[in-house]
User: What shape does this take?
Amino acid sequence: MPPAQVLLFSKYPEQETQTASQAAERMETLIQDLKEKHHQKHKRSLFPSDLFSADLLTMIANVSGCLPYMLPPKCPNNCMTKKYRHITGVCNNREHPRWGASNTALARWLPPVYEDGITQPKGWNPGFLHNGFLLPLVREVTRNIIESSNEAVTDDKLHSDILVVWGQYIAHDLAFTPQSVNRPSFLGEIDCQLTCENQNPCFPIQVFANDTFSLNMECMPFYRSAPACATGNQAVLLGNQPALYPRQQINSLTSFLDASTVYGSTPAAENKLRNMTSEEGLLRINVQYFDNGREYLPFVAQVPSPCAQDPKADKEERIECFMAGDSRSSEVISLAAIHTLWLREHNRLAKALKKLNPQWSSETIYQEAHKIVGALHQIITIRDYIPKIIGTNAFNKFIGPYKGYNHTMDPTVANVFSTAAFRFAHAAIHPTIKRLNAQYQSDPSLPNLQLHEAFFTPWRLIKEGGLDPVVRGTLAIAAKLQVQDQLLNEELTKKLFVLSNNGSLDLASLDLQRGRDHGLPGYNDWREFCDLPRLRTEADLTTAIANRMVVKKILEFYGNPDNIDVWLGGIVENMLPDARMGPLFACITGKQMKALRDGDRFWWENVNVFTEAQRHELNKYSLSRLICDNTGLTEAPLDAFILGKFPKDFESCANIPSINLEAWQEPFQTELTCGFPTRVDDGDFVHCSEAGKSMVTYFCHQGYKLQGEEQLSCTNGRWNSQPPACEDLNECENKSDPPCHSSAKCVNTKGSFQCFCTEPYELAEDGKTCIDSGRLSKASIVSIILGIVIFSCLALSSCLVICRWSYCARGSINSSMLKDGKNHAEGGDCHEMNTSPANILVKPVDKDRPSIPCVLLCM
Assistant: This one.
């Protein structure tokens, strides 16, 4: 499978996200078409917001499917929503319920820069000048400024490689911008795998003949990021927005540090990951393979998946991509290892909580374990990771001590953070993955892997020693230091996602092109945003970038410092003391982390989230404890991010602090005041207390609807109402938002539905739309066969008649001769005829003439 398609798989959104982004794309296409028609008719370049009536604009929003994403959601007010965060992040802030929620637009801290002011990326139009210069092609920037050989590696003397792996993992917890796969009906079908033209949604990366990377390619496929509803050309629909409100990109994840990498960011994703039959609130595990008795992630349902296979394995054996809360979990084996550790940790916590609280429902156990795992992600990231990458001074300046939840703080992940600043660590990725044995030594049976040998290879974890050798390698091997002339190695710029001989990708070029696709302002604009001086001359640049050769190359390609892509400028800046970033990215990262922390109502330090005793226990936790509890390692560094030598810098796991879960134990009598809440089929409940009053909130599993009271309260020793019931939801009856496309037939099933197509059509990837399969239907095939049979019979009958009358017309059959079993022809050439329909032969009188099948004579 070509690397671009592998990338598409890992960037393929959940159904809810796909629906939202497709709605935005449909709306953008509709408005673009109307805009062009208006321009042709009126010869005006502007597209005023009052061109259409409000009713017509609302209708367009509704037809496209965008309207639900433009209206504020309703926030239920019950004990469950007060106690636990929603999987989508919605209603975290009750005054601004979409802040930080999944499937909303990334935040803009500065207005975007598009070449048409609305949607066209920087570099879209040939000949378009920026500050008097053409923007350099991103592949040329990669080749001449960013790319370094695999041998050009300077070790980070302070930090282990797990620092880089954790950064990638947390980046996947905060943002995921799906790629557009739209085929705009107004512009005709476009295949970004084939075209080298800039035509939505394709923004290909140009490659030249003298580039050794090219492999006979003229360009590298690149899909634009999917837009969010009510942005770009669509924003004219909003009465409170200017007519030329620019395109924004969608974040399919919640913006919060909430372990969405483990649990997903949509109800559908969460349901796929949960073991719904478990009484212990467990997550699903792999039932085919185990790692010395420990769990692996389950495989994805979509098979065959694009993950590479063991070349030595039988052809029938397949090890598919892993399924986790984030679709990118299989990108590289070290990342898959971190995902697997958290799966194991959730299930370990859930089982322990069930033993402490046997009265808890499976939903309560799941939610409490989820809540703890989310808190541990926050602690490891803000307390242990962020100070190491932005430095102590920047941490104190931009983040500082926690002062409580701030409902005016928007936690939404910023476009510049996810698209540029938090991609800083791409320049710190080591070209080699090392796997170590129990003595932290190289093992001939587990040789070092070049990075490209570990892309999308879950089989290596399952068949080559499990998690432990990979985890040991990340702990005992130094991270690659980010050096100005040693940025991204060839494993990333020439061999990204190489699974076959179908080409490669270039991570640096993808990063640069993505920033231009998102319309990110230039490096200098962001320095000004962070109260840093603009750099106008070569001398100015050398104050921020010490390597003069790098400065000269940047100016040679960009011409004007204002044109420098923000990601490039950020990764080449001089690092701050005790940091792994320069001042610009430290500023952006610090501001983002403060917003994520202070704008999260469920932040672990908020006094309303955990008890004081629970917070005390949580604060003991560390990444090393996670490793000790979920691998076969018996020793680890006290701080996993600090590079140490084995065994002198490693501690026994017995000496590494752990959480005492007794702080989560609840007295059994509390829930028995009104009797134990009644369980419901196809649903569950959560019990909680508020102001000394016992309450229980019921809900149904996906595909069912609640009949009865949602929340019951304990009054005078009895529940105030009978428990509700969960009734199968017939999704096919939903006319306002049909589950299947009009081309498909919807059939209700218990707890779900299925879309069916009539032949010769088949379901598209979305599972809802019928597309032409290119095959003939069974009915057509039967008709064709039947026609052939009828035609053959008619032809055969005609042949018999022709042959009989052509060769035997002068003869007659003597009835008396029939008694002899022979047909004698009188006065003709037919001496003998076999009248069997299957074998009619005409035998001439002349014995020297050969016998000829009658059917041949008729041809």
Summary: The radius of gyration is 34 Å. The longest helix spans residues 778-808. The chain has 27 helices and 27 strands. The chain has a mean pLDDT of 85.
